[in-house]
Design brief:
Nucleotidyltransferase, domain 5; 5 strands; 5 helices
Amino acid sequence: MARILGIDPGLNATGWGLLEIASDGRANLRWGTIRPADGPLSERLNIINRRVHELVEGHRPDSVAIERPFNHRNVRTAITLGQAQAAAMIAAAAAGVPVHEYPPRQVKEAVAGLGSADKPAVKQALMTRLGLAQLDAPADAADALAVAFCHHLMAPLDSRVEVT
């Protein structure tokens, strides 16, 4: 059984989704959102780091897949997203879990077949591909599940490619 923790980083809301896929293709999902209270940046990042660490320790995923922040016109926004991503990456790496990054366009392409798909289309494609009648996860958590599913699809390809 593959167990992948997907993370959709954000300073105000970091979505997480645990995707467990059995060898027969059945999926088990868990999800949530980390919402640090307003306060100093260092405290908010610490909360993200601690909570992701707790998720990794509690669920023992085989790997963590994190959405890479996309290019923003607003440099400040890009930096804060990168900081939230780093807080989550450090938590996983400190626990010895491999971390994989995927840009949003690659996640959308892998899950929905179209790199420009909107959030509802990605969520619907994820439901279809996992055989779910519904998915009541909030947007941030659904995005995290999509990142985890993208990694599930990409990991076999990555293991077959030898980089020299």
